[in-house]
Amino acid sequence: MMSMFMESAVLAFGFPGLPELMIVLVIALVLFGGAKLPSLMRNLGRSANEFKRGMAETVDEEEEETKSPSEKA
Question: Does pTM top 0.70 for this prediction?
């Protein structure tokens, strides 16, 4: 029941649109300042790429473990 409620809540609100993203950008500028923001975004991008790489390695390792001995040869 709870998962059905959560799914409907996500569908009801949807993804943030342009006005919401602009508000987040303004808040980030106020908190961190214009000079610091590019380095923060760069570090965020690097972190996201590292996370994706780690997830891909995990999937590859799991696929390798699940192969039968005849497939490994």
Answer: no
